[in-house]
Design goal:
Layout (H helix, E strand, L loop, with lengths): L1 H28 L10 E8 L2 E8 L27 E5 L3 E3 L2 E3 L2 E9 L4 E6 L15 E7 L2 E2 L5 E12 L2 E9 L1 E8 L3
């Protein structure tokens, strides 16, 4: 009878541990998800037979100095917040006259007061720009940003405007700045 009692107590003890682990796991799984300070967003456009998708997070100005402040000049920036901005082309494209193969790329920028270098990096899924490696760059282009004092964009946004059957204009728009580049596809 003593052996049965010890086995019974051992089973009760193991059951108690099991239930404790199960209940604590369930309570962790039910924790409330917090609102992201820089919410996720995506924009998508088909041009010809090419699907273009941009996945990014939208930081807000929130009264801060953006260019040369929150986003420093002459430093690689993830062109958004949180995860690096990701841009995907379903077919080969031409970006401002330069060829880029179909695929997903992390999208970075090096802003300066006059010109920006836009970077399409082969490592598509990165957190921020902390592990950015320029040896993985697939393409770099230099563009001139446009300032519009009559336009205000509180939350960073990307736009894709189809300009013909086989072309589109893409813009990063934030604060009073627009950073454009052009995409051409085969049809």
């Amino acid at each position: 009878m003593k052996v049965l009692g010890k086995t019974f107590l051992l089973n009760i003890f193991l059951l108690a541990i099991f239930l404790t682990v199960l209940l604590s796991t369930a309570s962790i799984a039910q924790e409330k998800e917090e609102v992201r300070i820089s919410p996720k967003a995506a924009v998508e456009q088909t041009v010809g037979f090419t699907k273009i998708t941009i996945d990014y997070s939208r930081p807000g100005v929130k009264g801060r100095k953006i260019w040369g402040g929150l986003v420093p000049y002459d430093v690689v920036w993830r062109a958004g917040a949180n995860e690096a901005t990701k841009i995907t082309f379903s077919t080969d494209v031409i970006i401002d006259g330069k060829k880029l193969k179909a695929g997903s790329y992390s999208f970075f920028a090096i802003p300066t007061p006059k010109n920006w270098t836009l970077i399409f990096n082969k490592v598509a899924d990165q957190w921020g720009g902390f592990e950015y490696n320029d040896t993985e760059d697939a393409l770099r282009i230099v563009v001139t940003p446009e300032t519009d004092d009559n336009c205000w964009q509180e939350w960073l946004a990307y736009t894709i405007t189809k300009t013909s059957d086989n072309t589109a204009a893409i813009q990063l728009v934030w604060e009073k700045l627009k950073v454009p580049f052009n995409v051409e596809v085969d049809i």
